[in-house]
Amino acid sequence: MSLKLITEIARSLLLARWRQTLVAAIGVTFSITMFIALLSFMGGLNKLLDGLVVNRTPHIRLYNDVEAAKHQPIELSPQFYGYHHFISSVRPVSKPLAIHNALPIMKVLEMNPQVMGVSPRVSTQVFYNVGATQLNGLVSGIDVIRENRLFSFSDYVTEGRFIDLKNTSNSILLGKGVAIKMLAHIGDVIHITTVTGEQFPLKVAGIYQTGLQQVDDEQSYVSVATAQKIMGASNNYITDIEVKLKDISQAPALARTYRQRFDVDAIDIQTANSEFETGNFIRTLISYSVGVTLLIVAGFGIYNILNMMIYEKLDTIAILKAVGFSAKDVNRIFNVIALSIGVFGGIFGLLLGYGLSAIVAHIPFNTTALPTIKTYPIDFNPRFYLTGGVFSIITTYLAGYFPSRKASRVDPVVIIRGK
Fold this sequence. Notes:
Elements: H1 3-16, H2 18-52, E1 60-63, H3 102-110, E2 115-130, E3 133-142, H4 144-151, E4 157-160, H5 164-167, E5 171-175, H6 176-182, E6 189-194, E7 199-208, H7 213-216, E8 219-223, H8 224-231, E9 240-245, H9 251-262, E10 265-268, H10 269-272, H11 274-312, H12 314-322, H13 327-361, H14 382-408, H15 412-418
Parallel strand pairs: 3-8, 5-7
Antiparallel strand pairs: 1-9, 1-10, 2-3, 2-6, 2-9, 4-7, 6-7
Helix pairs in contact: 1-13, 2-11, 2-13, 2-14, 11-14, 12-15, 13-14
């Protein structure tokens, strides 16, 4: 039979029981709506957390770490070879924190086509002087332009301008927590004490806030030149080289390569933030599980409605077969019914899911811990909508598969004799 005729018969059967059809379509629509809204919200939350931590973290960090002595004297004695050694008198080897030949290494890294950019950093422990009290702190010297280009540094500056760190000599960008404890404002001059006991005056150029309290309470930023001046070091003194890659998945392999090639310690972003990656994976897995469960429940609803429809339309099926419709044609009719419910329910579900996500994205979300966040995070990723649409069709097809087979096996002679 022609597809047009099969479609017309399916439409007639659907309209004959329009209330049940509407209930089934609403079930699919509700499932897809919640599926899209849930995934969009979880996706936005993951992006927010990535922005707080992962996007601020270099894909590869080169530095010199303090390591325990690889060999103890007793291990070198042939008299105790093969024994268990628990005596360890040699402490960690004294190792300069500055990276040897840091500037040539940066030039080599920048020539690598896999590297998006490289940024130097000079980090040192300091004390913030607040009257007679000293607060522990960490000052990081950064290349402001590169840091902003690679790690969106300006997004976290809540007062002042990040570029003033470069334009104003001996200036500092204080963390929100440090500024509150020191009662410091833009334009004030504060004093810090270095680990060697020297005091250094710095002008407050701005205040930043990451949303991570421990960071905001301790860390501040200066330019690389100012940090080198604070430490009394030369202009090639670099303690960290931060690398951002074009493809983040290559970070572990490249970190191993750089560790061997430049004889420095190197850590990749996956290793440094493994807990956040695990958290993102679990949240995404939960979202998909809930959404698929909703679709399966809707599928059972469609299955029941089609079963009821077949039971009530046995006479119609018998007549169709008596006038020449084959079992395959009857199967197609009920498949069209199931897919129609899935397609229309899915389309409305996608539209309502987008609308619900858009509403949530405009709901104010104000918190002092995250001053740059104004509304709830939502990710309008097209992949979510494609996945929801495909799931709705697959679920409704499977829900209609067994009722369709049952309808195709109806024997018209048995039905007519039974009447």
